[in-house]
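A common beginner's mistake is to predict each chain separately and then try to dock the pieces by hand. The better habit, illustrated here, is to supply every component at once so that their relative placement is modeled jointly.
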Amino acid sequence: AQSVTQPDIHITVSEGASLELRCNYSYGATPYLFWYVQSPGQGLQLLLKYFSGDTLVQGIKGFEAEFKRSQSSFNLRKPSVHWSDAAEYFCAVVTNNAGNMLTFGGGTRLMVKP
Amino acid sequence: DTEVTQTPKHLVMGMTNKKSLKCEQHMGHRAMYWYKQKAKKPPELMFVYSYEKLSINESVPSRFSPECPNSSLLNLHLHALQPEDSALYLCASSQGRNSYEQYFGPGTRLTVT
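With all components supplied together, the output reads:
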């Protein structure tokens, strides 16, 4: 079955430092992958997506992610973290042919130190 | 307009009450979703409507009853809920066929007493 794993439950970085959040997927074909961000008590906001083509995708808020088929990974990166980036981050993969079922990873909570 | 709206923001209900959650989008999307999210957990899919027809029901108890009156509206009717049903209920929408990204509303925080 298709699945996605986020190995890090919590990550703390200093403001201005670089960030990488890990996501590993299990899927036979080319996956459709997403990163979402959720602030406390809020809905999920789509940061970026990968369907095909260029393996380095740019998203909103200065985030990017790189698809690496050889490593079954889709890690999220940001060169310089701002305090407002503190939130929960979810990696997700489409898990049916109709494209309307998302499976989410367990999430990574990002804390930003001043 | 790229927004999914949900009302109410907060809802407290007793176990014998009947209430409804409402979701609306005006992006012309033809697929709409209900998710349940417990604290510190990822969202769990409950229902999917595609072109106003229920296409996926993830074995949700019958005390949750979805309704899609038209392509812009999605309701979730609640009856005889249990305290363990307390959660954040998220609505999402997507374009429909061959379009996979889902856009989420802010959620309704439900507390069952």
